[in-house]
Write a structure and sequence with these properties.
Layout (H helix, E strand, L loop, with lengths): L1 E12 L2 E13 L4 E5 L6 H8 L7 E6 L2 E2 L5 H11 E5 L10 H11 L6 H10 L15 H13 L5 E5 L7 H16 L3 E5 L3 H4 L4 E6 L2 E4 L1
Parallel strand pairs: 3-8, 3-9, 6-7, 7-8
Antiparallel strand pairs: 1-2, 1-4, 4-5, 9-10
The protein binds adenosine-5'-diphosphate and magnesium ion.
The site of adenosine-5'-diphosphate has 12 residues, from strand 1, strand 2 and helix 1.
Length: about 220
């Protein structure tokens, strides 16, 4: 589904160049459950953003469904991001003034799709929050907020979920629950790529990718 060949990424910080990725080759098949691990600063977030088309590499070739991303027009990339990819972040990024229900519908605004109330309700049911749909995020626990973020990531029926330390702000009990939820999405056929510092959770993925100094150590 996604291939990286010789991917490098440099950032410029003042006069200094930061080599965040220094030659990454990776192939992700549809339906995989992958954990990405590695020390802080090893390039995990950078790699996830490139895989999710949120950022572009400095060098190297990335293919989605066999097509080189560089050759795709921006409009097609936007479409891929909206229709194929869901993102989940450590910090949840819910909008405080909106209800749980409205937070989940947010991506539909950007893709100019109609809000199907039945569908939103079934997503909220899937994440176990049907009874909280009228609540504001500040009435929820961290684990519940992450469930809302996962429902939001699912609203455009993505093929793949990229989750960047989704349990990084959660206690172990809530981390387990979020991991189980991602597992249940995987069981429905989604591809899951999750960055984590939690070795126990990483060990339960189908494949572990270890990054160090911008390179993959082993798979
Ligand atoms: N926008 C940026 N500008 C400059 N340097 C960055 C930027 N984003 C990340 N970096 C640097 O790139 C390296 C990899 O960062 P990152 O991908 O966030 O690692 P990780 O997620 O594994 O902690 C780090 O040295 C980080 O400081
Ligand atoms: Mg990171």
């Amino acid at each position: 589904m996604i291939e990286l060949h010789g991917i490098e990424k440099e950032y410029t910080r003042g006069s200094e160049k930061v080599h965040a990725l220094t030659g990454v080759d990776l192939s992700i098949e549809s339906g995989e459950f992958i954990a990405i691990v590695g020390p802080s600063g090893s390039g995990k977030t950078t790699m996830l953003h490139i895989l999710g088309c949120l950022d572009q590499p400095s060098r190297g070739v990335m293919k989605i469904d066999g097509i080189e991303v560089e050759n795709l027009p921006e409009s097609k990339l936007v479409q891929i991001r909206r229709e194929k990819i869901g993102f989940v972040f450590q910090q949840f990024y819910l909008i405080p003034g909106l209800t749980v229900f409205d937070n989940v519908t947010l991506p539909l605004l950007f893709s100019r799709k109609e809000i199907d109330k039945g569908k939103i309700n079934s997503l909220l049911e899937l994440v176990g929050l049907a009874s909280r749909q009228g609540h504001n995020p500040n009435q929820l626990s961290g684990g519940e907020m992450q469930r809302v973020a996962i429902a939001r990531a699912m609203v455009n029926d993505p093929e793949v979920i990229f989750a960047d330390e989704p349990t990084g702000n959660l206690d172990s009990e809530n981390s387990e629950k979020i991991f189980d939820l991602l597992k249940s999405l995987h069981a429905r056929g989604l591809t899951i790529v999750m960055v984590t510092h939690n070795n126990d959770l990483a060990g339960r993925a189908e494949r572990i990718i270890s990054l160090k100094d911008g390179k993959i150590l082993n798979q």
